[in-house]
Amino acid sequence: MLKLGVITDEISQDLEYALKVMKEIGAEYAELRGVWGKNIMRQSDEEVREVKRLLEKYGAPVSVLATPFLKIHVDSVDDYREHLKYLEKAIRIAKFLDTDKIRVFSFWRRPDRSRWLDRVVDALREFGDIARDEGIVLVLENEASCMVATGAETLEIISRAGVPNLKVIWDPGNAYAAGETPYPDGYLAIRNHVVHMHVKDCALINGRKRWVAIGSGMIDYVSQFKALVKDGYDGVISLETHYKIDDNREAATRESFAGLLRTLEKAFNRG
Question: Count of CB atoms within 10 A of residue 237's CB?
Answer without folding.
Answer: 25
